[in-house]
Give the backbone structure.
Amino acid sequence: MKEKTLNWFYRNSTIVLLVVPLLIIALIADNIGDNLIERVITVLFINLVIVLGLQLFMGNSGILAWTHVGFMGIGAYASVLCSMTPEAKALTLPNLYPVIAQIHLPFLVSILIGAVVAAFAATLISYPLMRLSDAAAVITFFATLIVIHVVLIRWDVVTNGPRTLFGVERYTYLWTSAIFGIITVIAALWFKESALGLKLRASRDDRYAAASIGINIVRVRWYAFIVSAFIAGLGGGLWAHFITSFSPSAFYLSETFTLLAMLVVGGASSVSGAVVGTVVVTLAREVLRGIENTATFTQVLPVDLLGFTEVFLAIALIVVLALRPSGLLGSREITWKRKRKVIPNGNGFETETNPEV
Amino acid sequence: MITLDFLINAITLGSLYALIALGLVIVYGILKLANFAYGEFIMVGGYALYMISTIAPLPWLILAILAVLTAVAVSYFTELIAFRPVREKSLTALLITSFAVSTLLQNAALIIVSPRAKAVPLPQLFSTSINILGSDVPVRNVLTIITAFAIFGLLTLLLRKTVLGIALRAAADNFKMTRMLGVPANLVISAAFIISGLLAGVVSIFWVGRTASVTPTIGAAPLLVAFIACVIGGMNSLLGAVVGGFVYGFLFSFLSLLLPQGLLDYREAFMFVIVILILLFRPEGLIRNKYSGERVG
């Protein structure tokens, strides 16, 4: 009996071990009161929401998904169109459809609508894509990202085209993003152990065995994809109300690279890995960005360091993948005590081998 | 409506696209790696052309050869340093590595050279045109077509008549079996990357020849071309890549001709919708080959 309680505690200790440090980070940032630190930590939590959205699908299904930055963009634009005042819209988007131009909703409702729109877009386009795996899936998801990007750029009535959309009011502050980030952590952990998450992970580990016990792989992937697009859209909405002016180029390859780096450095197949990766990469990125800007403005070095951050991150990513292809944490969650042994050839990226080599 | 002008333009575009697609497929066939860094090899070729010309006033042909060799070297070294350690562990890790290499090369160009476009030296020949059957055709286009077909010929010879070529084809068909028969994996994969780099280098000359300038992001467009062409033709065969390249070249020319101006902006979106549809309904592409069963349901 006691054993059982203990086991239950061990199994659920991950939530505590992830949420408490995150809360401490938020509290520290809040109490220091430094504007820059507060911004960095706000960005950290926004990144956390989006990376966990990505992890929810990628980590559990094993499919490399590039599309989520696109859904982040959809969420950002949809939420902003709801929350902006009609006057602000008239200034930045003079040709906007009258129906949308009239809307003026509170912040929380707006970002939820943004997330729903992203999830709806995912529902419409993704069902057939879920049949694909491996390289075909990668190219298809990549193609989908490009289609979304082209539409965002060309649909200038709604998005102001490739130009910057401005006039968004800032609503996302430290605690807004921290609360959403922590809720997402809990949701991602819960999803992983839910019936849907288990089915999805079964399909990742062995798609034939999973199909043979009656799991409809396409459908399971589809549901997970919609959920993860919802979270990515939510993150996009939070981000848009933090940054307050942006253009479609924010939701493209360089952002994809950053998010993938965050996810992969920590380990895509565990929530803990995604959290650790997000924290490490966000902080590293801010420090590097600081160095890059200082060096560029003060001209202490003979060359401009524009792009230095990306070079450093890319090298770090290559090194991590070469040494630990499953990320720093692998597929393990952080727990008080490692209850189960890690079985060799068990699951996840850790043991996934390239069948062709 | 379809004039000789249009035809020659379409063939030029097609042969360039076919070259681009070949470079991607030759690696994909063996490693199943959709190499995101492939576009950057093309960029490297362009930058080599620019940088060597600023250092030494060499004849253009030698410059071009040096640029191609630089692309080959970069392709080979990325395989050696970045891809080899990850190769046997996980396909996902391999793909992310290639994306990281692409970002790395792009930003390295940003730091080392400049984010602004740089003018690339081109021979006089590139800007002249000759008269064929009453229509003016730029010599550049003729050169593209001739070079492309020369490379197709040489590559066919290499693949059919030499031991290395046979090993490459065997590896693309069944890599495990090929290794069991004693073909060293490293050799085959390095050879594939070298050929890929060679094709990227040749493409880079003609690609920058179109605009006479090079920017850090110039590799993105050819990478997308390669993806589309490969998917149309079929990811698992070299012939498929060539056919896909030509089909895409013609399709692109026709879309430019037929689509109304308002929809022309969405042309790339249309192309990628076609790609998605092909992958869904005919994933083996136009040229049927062994299909590796990547689809569920």
About this structure: Chain B touches chain A through 57 residues (CB under 8 Å).
